[in-house]
Amino acid sequence: MIDNESGHIVRREIFRCTGQQLDAILLFGEQRHFDERPLQWVVAQYLQSPASRG
After folding, report:
1. pTM of the predicted model as reported, rounded to 2 decimal places
2. Which residues fall within 8 angstroms of residue 10, CB to CB, at 6 or more apart?
3. Are 28 and 46 a contacting pair, CB within 8 Å?
4. Helices 19-31 + 39-48 axis angle, to 10
5. Would you say 25 and 17 are in contact if contact means Cβ atoms under 8 Å apart?
6. Domain locations in the chain?
7. CB contact at 8 A, 2 and 10
8. Taking every pair of C-alpha atoms in the chain, what is the biggest distance, in angstroms?
9. Closest among 30, 18, 28 to 48, alpha carbons compared
């Protein structure tokens, strides 16, 4: 969704996932000690990894 006033994408629309997917992403981050990294960085790493494919 785009905010009509600013023309920017509303952040909550950029990334959507199910509760199960979020649990998998958080577990992925914990296992790799990514605790201090921003969630968007962890999500990007997860999506590039074989873990995201099954």
Report:
1. 0.69
2. 1, 2, 3
3. yes
4. 90
5. yes
6. 17-53
7. yes
8. 41
9. 28
Q: Is 28 exposed, middle or buried (0-12, 13-18, 19+ CB in 10 A)?
A: middle
Whole-angstrom distance, CA of residue 49 vs CA of residue 27: 13
Note the pLDDT tens digit of each residue in 14-46. Answer: 677 899 999 999 999 999 999 999 998 999 999
Copy the structure tokens of residue 47.
Answer: 């999506």
Residue 6 CB partners (closer than 8 Å, separation 6+): none
CB 19 within 8 A of CB 25: no
